[in-house]
Amino acid sequence: MKTIIEILKVIILGIVEGITEWLPISSTGHMILVDEFIVLNVNPAFKEMFFVVIQLGAILAVVLLYFNKLNPFSNKKSKQEKLNTWDIWFKVVVGCIPAGVLGVLFDDWFDKHFYNGPVIAIALIVYGIAFIVIENKQKDQTPTISSFKQLDYKTAILIGVFQSLSLIPGTSRSGSTIIGGMLLGTSRFIATEFSFFMSIPIMFGASLLKLVNFGFNFEVIELAYLLIGMFVAFVVSLVAIRFLIRYLKNNDFKIFGWYRIVLGLIVLIYFGLR
Question: What's the CA gap between 83 and 73, in Å, rounded?
Answer without folding.
Answer: 10
